[in-house]
Amino acid sequence: FNMSISLYEVFTGKKTKIKIPSSINCDSCSGTGGAGGSKPSTCPSCNGYGKVRTSSGFFSIERTCSVCGGSGEAISNPCLKCSGTGLIKKQKTISVSIPAGVDTGTRIRISGEGERGERGGTTGDLYIFINVKNDKLFEREEEHIFCRVPISITTAILGGVIEIPTIEGTKARLTIPPGTQSETQFRLKGKGMTILRQDYR
C-alpha cells in the first residue's frame, strides 16, 4: 500500500485508517475450494509432488505442476463462486500508525494483514510504502529542516528580532545581527525533524 503524507505528519506521526483489498474464505465452500463440501484429492498429474519432471536427452527439467499449481492437490469439482481457490475478494478497513520521522521510501510492515493463502493457507504481511509530499515552506535534509525567511534591508543593516515559523506549527524568535548578508544561515537548536526510532529503519 502506497501512502503519501505531509511533512507536518512526518514530524508528529500519523494514525489513520486505510481500505485495502483482501481475500477471505469463500462462504460457499468454507474455504476448501470444492463444491458441496468436497475436498481436494491428490493431483493425478504430479501424484501429489507439486512438480513434474521432463527429460530431454541428458537433461532433466523440473517445473511446477500446471494442473495443481504446485500444491499437490487437485479439485475435481471446484466451487463456482471462488473458482476453486477457496477465497473471495473483499475490501477491509484497518487502523495503521505511522511513526514520526519517516521519510520517502520508508517501509512499514503490518503482520498478518496481507493476502490469505489459497485453500486454508496462512496470511501474509501488509507493507506500507511512505511518500513524503513537498512542503511549500520547509525543506528537509535527514533530521534537519530548512526555511527561507525574507527580511527587510533595514533589519539586515541594523539588526533586530524577527519571528519565524517552525515545523511544529509555532513561532520562534530569531535575533538578526547588524550587517547580516543575504543567504546567511542561522541554526535553531531542537527545531528540526523528529528522529525515527531505530526499530523502524
Task: Give an account of the 3D structure.
The structure is a single chain. By secondary structure, the protein is mainly β. 6% of the residues lie in helices and 37% in strands. The chain has helices at 7-12, 153-158; strands at residues 2-5, 14-25, 41-42, 51-56, 59-64, 73-74, 87-98, 107-110, 126-132, 138-141, 144-147, 160-165, 171-176. The strands form six sheets. It has a three-stranded mixed beta sheet with strand order 1-9-8. Strands 2-7 form a two-stranded antiparallel sheet. The protein is elongated. The model has no long low-confidence stretch (mean pLDDT 83).
Concise summary:
The chain is elongated. It has 201 residues and is mainly beta. The relative contact order is 0.20.
Morphology = elongated
Helix tally? 2
> What is the averaged pLDDT score?
83
Q: Please trace the helix and strand order, writing H or E for each element.
A: EHEEEEEEEEEEHEE
Radius of gyration (Å): 29 Å
End-to-end Cα distance = 18 Å
Notable traits:
201 residues, mainly beta, three-stranded mixed sheet, two-stranded antiparallel ribbon, elongated
Question: Helices and strands in order, then pairings?
Answer:
Elements: E1 2-5, H1 7-12, E2 14-25, E3 41-42, E4 51-56, E5 59-64, E6 73-74, E7 87-98, E8 107-110, E9 126-132, E10 138-141, E11 144-147, H2 153-158, E12 160-165, E13 171-176
Parallel strand pairs: 1-9
Antiparallel strand pairs: 2-7, 3-6, 4-5, 8-9, 10-11, 12-13
